[in-house]
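Sequence only, no structure available. Ideas?
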Amino acid sequence: MNDHIDWKARYIDLEEQMLDMMKMTARLVDKEVHNQSAKITGINTMMIDEQLEVIVKSKSSDAQYLFELITLEEEVLIKKFTHFKNSYKFNTQLINEPFRVRVSIKNQGHGGYDDINVTKVLNQEEGIV
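Reply:
I predicted one. Tokens follow.
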């Protein structure tokens, strides 16, 4: 009862199976990351002189951002698409009415925006004049 086991061949076969499983896992993780929708978790605004800086906190992968200054009636005053940059500085010197900031976010490769967030009313005191 002398069985001959080719350990080298079995080891190579096992190694190939492990490599296939690793590739499959990498594909599944990559697919899940790209199917994940982007989410805005917070917007910070800071007004210094006539510059309004907007910084977005988000959960996403390869997020693209659209920043808009809008009136209270939802009319767009200024629009800026910043691709992968999560902040933008608006020059608000010529705006003399109350406005809000609307930020839209999407992952790269997605057709539409996954999440939209609007801030509270800014520039309120100047709009009353």
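The domain at 1-129 is CATH 2.60.40.10 (Immunoglobulin-like).
Hope that gets you unstuck.
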